[in-house]
Amino acid sequence: MSAITVALVGNPNTGKSTIFNGLTGSHQQIGNWAGVTVEKKVGHVHHEGCDITVVDLPGTYSANAHSAEERVVTDFLTGGKADLVLDIIDSTNLERNLLLTVQLLELGVPLMLDLNMHDEARRNGINIDVRKLQEALGTPVVQTTGRESESLHHLLDVFTGTDMSRYEPSRRIKRHMEQESAIRTRFEAIQAYRAERRAAGETGEEFAPLPENELDEQLMTLHYTLIRDLVRRSVTFARERRSTSDRVDDVLANGFMALPMFLLLLYGVFMLTFDWVGQSAADALGAFISGTFKEALAATLERLAVADWLRSLVLDGIVDGVGSVVAFVPLIFVLFFCLNFLEGTGYMARVAFVMDPVMRCVGLTGKAIMPLMMGFGCAVPAIMAARTLDNRKDRVIAMLVAPFLTCGAKLPVMALLATMFFPKSASNVVFSMYVIGLLMAVCAAKALGKALFKGEDAPFLLELPPYRWPDMRSVLYETWVEGRGYLVKAGTVIFAACLMVWFLSNFNLGGWAPESESFLASIGGGMAVLFRLHGFGTWQIGAAITAGVMAKEFVIATLAVLYGVGEAEGLVGSGIAASFTAASAYAFMVFSQLYTPCVTALATIHKETGSWRWTGFAALYTFAAAWAVSLLVYQVGRLVVG
Amino acid sequence: MTLREAKPGMTLKILALDDGDLKERLLTMGLLPETTVTVLRSAPFGDPMAIRVRSYDLALRRVDAAKVSVTLLSSGGKGAGK
Q1: What does the alpha-carbon distance between residue B6 and residue B25 come to, in Å, rounded to a whole number?
Q2: Which residues of B touch A216 (CB under 8 A)?
C-alpha cells in the first residue's frame, strides 16, 4: 500500500481547519511542535488504497520566518517531508492570499492551490478561471466549498491521482524568481560596497547601511506586481456591491452602538453557560452524583461492611472529588461551544476591534476581552481561552489576572460570608467584591505588562473576515477536543487535590484523627501566623484558606466543620460570625476573593504556559497581593469602624 | 497626510511607509506604496479603524496608521460616515 504526506498551508480565516477536520474526521493527533507552543495537528485518512497523512500547519500570512508560526511552516516545508503541499486560499480575497503562494513557489515545494469558498466568491461577483490560473502558475489548482463532503471527497481523489512531477513552474514564475534573486544580489552588492567604503573611512550619508526593510519593500513590490498580473489574467470582477457582511458590520462594529451589541451577545453567552444550559446540566449532574449515586454507593458499602476509613475515603474523598470535576464539564462544553461558534462566524474579530480602545488602557489588546470576561464564570475556561491571543505577553497576562475575578465558585463563598457578617447589606458587600476583583485584575494587568514584558507590544493588525455561517461539524469537534483536554488534565489534578484534602483533614502523625487535631489544623495554625495583623489569625481560618486552594468551595465547608456548625443552627447563627469584627470579616472576604487560584486553575496555567515558573508565580503573586490588600482593608477599616 | 487622519468613507492611495518594525507586517498584509485603501469605519472612541485593502478588511490602530503616508483620492461623498 502506498503512503503520502499532505501538508495544509494557508492564511488565517481561509477555512483550513474546516477542511482538515472534514478530511481526517476524528483520526487526529494534537500536540505541540518541538520547542514552541504552536499547536501541531496531524490526521490520517485511507483513500483508494493509499494511506494519507495530513499535517495541518499553522495559518500564516507569509513565509518570512519572522514569527514562531511562520518558522514552523518554513521549517516543515523545507525539510522535504511533504509529498504535496495544499495551499488553501480564500477565493474572496485572492490577492493577499496569493502572497503566501508566491513565497511557497520560491521554496520549491510540490505546491497545489485550493481555491476554497469559491461559491461565496461567485456570489460576490468574483469569477476565477481555474484553467488560466493553473497555466499562469504552472501548478495544479482545485476548487472547494470547504464544508460539502462531495468537494472534500474530490480533494482526496486529487491527492492520490495527481502526479506532481508532471508540473513545473510557468515561464512567468521562473522569470519572477530570476528577478527576485537579481534584487537580492543587487541589495547585497550595495550593502557590501557601502560597508567597504565605510571601512575605508568614508562617513557620508550615501555610505550608510541600507535598512533591511528596504529589501522587504522591493521584494513585496515585485511579488505584488506578479500577483496583479496573475489576477488580471485569470479573474473577472462583476460590479462591486455592498455585501451583507458590510451591512452587518454597520450595526455590530460601528462606533458606539457596537458596545451595547457586544454586551448583549456576551450576556447571552454568559446566561447560556452559567444559567440556562450549562449550569442546569451541571447542577443536575452534581445532584445525581452527590445524591442518588452516593446514597446507593453508601448503602452498598454498608452491606459489604467495609472499614470506616475506607468508606470515608470512597464517599468523602473519591466520590466528592470526581463529582466536583464532573460538575465543571457541562460549563466547559457549553462555553467552548459558544466561543467556537462565534469564532466561526467571524464575530470574535469584531469583538477585538470594538473592545480595543478599552483594553488598550490596561496595556492589552482588544482580543483579551473574551478570556477576561470568562473569568467571571470560571478561571479555567478563561485561562484556556487566552490561547486565542496573538502574542505571548497578552496570553500570559490574561492568564495571570483572570483568577482575580469573582468566579462561579467564589460567588457562593462571598454570598455566604456576606450574609453571615453583614446580614443587612449582603448584596452590596458581594457587589463590592466583584468590583475589587475587577480593579485588581486591571491594576495587575497594567503593572505586569510594565514590569515583566517591557517593549513586547505587538502592533494591532487584525483581519476582519467576512461573516460566515460556521461549519457545525468543526465547531462541535473543536469543542469536544477542548472539553476532553480539560477533563483529562485538570480532572486528574482536582481528583488528587480532593484526596489530599480528605487525607489532611482526617489524619495526623498518629493516624486517624478528628479534624481539629488533623494535619489540616496544624497547617492552619502555621498559616494563622501570617494573618495576625489582619484580624483573622486563627487556626480554623488558616485551615480554611489552605483548603480553599484546592477548590474555593472548601473555604466555607472547612470553616463550618472546624467551628463545629451543626446541621440545625446553620452558618449564620453559628459561632463563626462571633469570632470576627466587621473590619476583619470584610478583610477576610477580600483575601478570599483575591488569593491563590484553585489547583485546577493553576494546573490549567501550567498546561497552557508549559512553565512551572509562571505557574508558581501565578500562585505566589496573587497570595502576596491578597495579603497586602486585605491587610490594608483591615487596618483602614479598623480606624473607620472602630 | 497620514492614514491616521483619514475619515470613514475616504479613499486614499499609499505613498510610503515609515521604516521600523511595523513596516514588514504592513507589507505582508498588502499595504504597499501605490495601493488604494478605503476607510470603512472606526471602533468606539474612533480608534482603531477598519480599512478595506485588496478586497479584504483590516483593523489597525491610529498610532500605527500614522506610519503610513497617503494622498486623498476621494472623500467618499454620501458614503462618508457609513
Answers
A1: 20
A2: 23-24, 27
